[in-house]
Amino acid sequence: MQIYKEFITAKNGSQIPVFTSGRTMESRYNPERDAENLCNSINEEAGFFLVLGIGSGIFLKLLSQKYPDSKILALELYKDDIDFLLQNESLNQLSKNTSIRICCLEELETFLTQNYFPAKYGSFKIIEQRSWVNENQAHIENINLILNKTFGIISADFSVQAHFGKIWNTNIINNSKLAEKVNSQELYKSIKDNNRKTAVIAGAGPSLDKTSELLKINRDTYFIIATDTAGKALIKQNIIPDVIVSIDPQSVSYNHFINNDISSKILYAFDLCGNSSAVRHLVSQGNNIFFFCSGHPLSTAINAGSDFSLPVFFSGAGTVTITALDIAVQAGFTDIMILGADFSYSDGKAYTSGTYLDTLYNKGSSKLAETEQTFSKLMFRTELLEITRNKKTTQILQAYKGSLENYLTQQNILFTKKNEVYELHCPSHPKLSATTPSAPKALLKPFFNRLQNAKPEEVETILLPFVAWLRNNERSKNFTYKELLKLALDTIVSYNI
Question: Which residue of 134, 190, 210, 275 is surrounded by the most CB atoms within 10 Å?
């Protein structure tokens, strides 16, 4: 489909496109003057502009000249229109400008999520070319829906980075030092050696109260890989997991691992981003730990510098349940069950019984502030969506569920879900050699050697999560992006190794 049909020559000699309706995108007399007026009407600077309508490109050229450090994304409805417009030689040349990107409506969400990083560009501004908007009124509502959805995704991602950016860096560096002393090869091999059993992935949803009973029968036939929150709950039932997985960087996750008297029988798998205090505590107690990466750009860069000596596992939308599942899939398990992956609150409960939250909230319980009231605050911190009368969910939990089921589909894993239990059958597995960690190996030295002489823009990707934290920090929020990049790089390099 197309909304343009031809180019005509304006009175001043400029080439301007004509809509199929016969109306022109820009003035038939002096399109440059109108473009200048629109450009001059922009009073506030933005790091990223979305322009509705490409047209002749005259406005895009002026905008890029006025804001040379900003990124511009120009939108057209259809790819056919883009192909048609780029037949114009001046517009074709303009499209080669690295600060300008062009996309159609079908690509808008992908282009924005892959190109607009609030940590880098800061503010975002939408500019409407009036003739284009008037011509495409029937599509404006759909455009707004896509933008609202996409900004929700980007905003959520930025919020996480702004909150965890600094602690991620600290954990990654501290855990990398410990990872250099661990023989992950043998520890990870112990999981693969059990892949003829049925792998049980245990999440901490309320349904685990009931479904965990399955694990008390024929326990030896199961290999249990529990999330950190579920691990403590299972131990209280005298169901000892074989592996407990943690990706949470927060200090509160330390509570998952204290007072586990039989914890030395368990293999602990930690993301390099995971809470390093918890790791040190477990090591001091003589526990076995191996490390992995799940996508943070800094941990990925450190791992790459050691020829990927640590395994890489998938974390989806950021839920540890998917990471635990990916460990089982990559280890070669054929039959897998997932328990406690409710992605909802059932019968007024947020989690299974026996998590550290029970202990924490019970300690603070009183006649005026009962434990149930505290859990209710936890559940109602975001809007609840009703599934059934006794079951509620949230947008975040729905995103986790979608991420898990997308993972299963992409891995060609057949699954059914009945009575809150996922049953999976994996007909084939990826090459396991790619995820087999090596013997202890230097991680930080090769990474820091490269970093010492690097320019900030050369390592921009690994710095962005920390830059997001700096941009949100009171002391540095008014810094330019280049200043933030340099500060982030200097901070990482300053770690004493």
Answer: 275
Contact 118, 160 (CB under 8 A): no
| Chain centroid offset of residue 450 CA | 26
Q: Note whether 62 and 136 are within 8 A (CB).
A: no
What stretches of 48-140 adopt beta strand conformation (E)?
48-52, 71-76, 100-104, 124-128
- The neighbour count for residue 270, using CB atoms within 10 Å, is 26
Which of these, 345, 468, 452, 347, lies nearest to 397 by C-alpha position? 345
How many angstroms separate the CA atoms of 85 and 54, rounded?
Answer: 8
Query: At a CB cut-off of 8 Å and minimum separation 6, what does 117 contact?
Result: 158, 464
Query: What is the full DSSP assignment across 260-325?
Result: -TTGGGSEEEEETTS-HHHHHHHHHTT-EEEEEB-S-HHHHHHHHHTTS-S-B---TTT-HHHHHH
Q: Which residues contact 445 (CB under 8 A, 6 or more apart)?
A: 497
Amino acid at 102: I
Which residues lie below 8 Å from residue 67, measured CB to CB, with a gap of 6+? Answer: 45, 46, 49
Rounded to two decimals, what is the model's pTM? Answer: 0.82
Q: Kindly report which listed range (73-87, 115-129, 416-430) carries the lowest average pLDDT score.
A: 416-430
Give the pLDDT confidence of 430-445 residue by residue, as tens digits. 544 444 545 567 889 8
- pLDDT per residue over 243-292, tens digit each? 999 999 988 888 888 766 555 689 999 999 999 999 999 988 888 899 99
Pairing outcome for strands 391-393 and 335-339? unpaired
Are 375 and 235 spatial neighbours (Cβ–Cβ below 8 Å)?
Answer: no
Contact of 293 with 272, CB cutoff 8 Å = yes
Starting at the edge strand that comes first in sequence, how are the strands of the sheet with 222-227 ordered?
288-292, 267-271, 243-246, 222-227, 198-202, 335-339, 421-425, 414-418
Q: Is the pLDDT of residue 105 over 70?
A: yes
CA pair distance 207, 233, nearest whole angstrom: 12
- Cβ atoms within 10 Å of 158's Cβ, excluding its own: 20
Q: What are phi and psi of 150, to 5 degrees?
A: -70, -40
